[in-house]
Amino acid sequence: MRATALASAAIIALASHASAETIKIDVGPNGQFAFQPNNIKAKVGDVLSFNFHPLNHSVVMGDFANPCAPAKTGGFFSGFMPVASGVGSQTFEVTVNNTDPIFFYCSQNKFSHCISGMSGVVNEPSSGDTLDAYQAAAKSVKSASNPATVFGGRLVANAEATSSATTTAAPAATTTSCTTGNKAPNGNGYKRDTCSGAGSVQASIGIVAASLGMALLLS
Ligand SMILES: [Cu+2]
């Protein structure tokens, strides 16, 4: 009996591993402030693939107890993904490590995305901490927030974007470097205009420092 149970467990583990799926979640499709689907069943090893639609959305893992705020421990943050048309040049992919409920939301405050219901859940409890309860509580939140930096997932070239986006292919590398550092805190607007700006600021500081060094040497 015990051996059979162990064997079954092993088979189930193998089977679930072998059948790990990528679950596509559209972020803001058709101009809606919503994730689609927003109530997902996932098993360990599955990958959540967030596919960004126009406007400037993000996805952040939160805790049920604090709607529209980042999870106190662990979690993930995609950064803001400005998309003019079609879908974003990169998806954000998060591997599911356990079957605990995962609440997630969009932290865009322009038009209050999370507060107006832009959130979702993976492995929703059957009662109590439900997505309905999360979204109801979100309505009384003043503003959404997100971590300072992108973490907890991978930015991956979006195959869906390559066919329609002739102009986004080249800037993709710039986007990648921005998301790891400078992009995140600047997400309240609809433009990602600070990435190159931040670089040039650093460059100017470098020049100032060099000039100071020169001045000191010369004095
Ligand atoms: Cu949003």
From TrEMBL:
Statement: the UniProt record of this protein carries the keyword Signal: yes
Top-level taxon of the source organism: Eukaryota
Signal peptide (UniProt feature, chain positions): 1-20
Ranges for region Disordered: 166-185
Bias (Low complexity) ranges: 166-180
Keywords recorded for this protein, A-Z: Signal
Cited CDD domains: Cupredoxin
InterPro entries (alphabetical): Cupredoxin, Ser-rich/MCO-related
Annotated protein name in UniProt: Predicted protein
Natural source organism: Hypocrea jecorina (strain QM6a)
